C-alpha cells in the first residue's frame, strides 16, 4: 500500500480562525509498509505565521479526509494519538508522523 498517497499533511493558520494553506513538502515519493508495521513519514513546511497548527490526514481510496493527529506550534510536547505520534522540530520546520507497530 502506498502510504504517501493516503496521507497528506495540511498546515493551517489559527489566525482569525481562517485556514490559510502554506507550503508543505514531502520529499519521500512513496513509502512502502505492511499493515501493522511501523512507518515514519517525513514532512517539512513553511509558514510566516508565528502560531499555526499542523494536521496529518489519512485519505482512504474511498475518498474523504480523516484527521489523524494535530500539532499546535506553541505546544512544547510532541502530539500523540494512539498509534500515531509526531516528531515536531519547530526550528527545522519539520513534522514527522510516526505510526507505531500494532
Ligand atoms: C519531539 O521528539 C523529538 C525526539 O525525541 C525531540 O527531538 C523534539 O524536540 C520533540 N519536540 C517537541 C516539540 O517536544
UniProtKB/TrEMBL annotation:
Entries under InterPro entries matching the protein: Ig-like_dom_sf, Ig-like_fold, Ig_V-set, TCR_variable_region
Location within or outside the cell: Cell membrane
Keywords carried by this UniProt record: Adaptive immunity, Cell membrane, Disulfide bond, Immunity, Immunoglobulin domain, Membrane, Receptor, Signal
Primary location recorded for the protein, binned into one broad class: membrane
Region forming the signal peptide: 1-21
Domain spans labelled Immunoglobulin V-set: 27-99
Record-level GO cellular component terms: plasma membrane
Pfam families: V-set
Biological process, per Gene Ontology: adaptive immune response
Domain of life: Eukaryota
Entry keyword DNA repair: no
Protein's recorded name: Immunoglobulin V-set domain-containing protein
Organism, as annotated: Bos mutus (wild yak)
Amino acid at each position: 500500500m502506498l502510504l504517501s498517497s493516503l496521507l497528506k499533511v495540511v498546515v493551517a493558520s489559527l489566525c482569525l480562525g481562517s485556514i490559510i494553506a502554506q507550503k508543505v513538502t514531502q520529499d519521500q515519493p512513496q513509502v512502502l509498509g505492511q499493515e501493522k508495521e511501523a512507518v515514519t513519514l517525513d514532512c517539512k513546511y513553511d509558514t510566516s505565521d508565528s502560531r499555526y497548527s499542523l494536521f496529518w490526514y489519512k485519505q482512504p481510496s474511498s475518498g474523504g479526509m480523516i484527521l489523524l493527529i494535530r500539532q499546535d506550534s506553541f505546544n512544547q510536547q510532541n502530539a500523540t494519538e494512539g498509534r500515531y505520534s509526531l516528531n515536531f522540530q519547530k526550528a527545522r520546520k519539520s513534522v514527522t508522523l510516526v505510526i507505531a507497530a500494532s
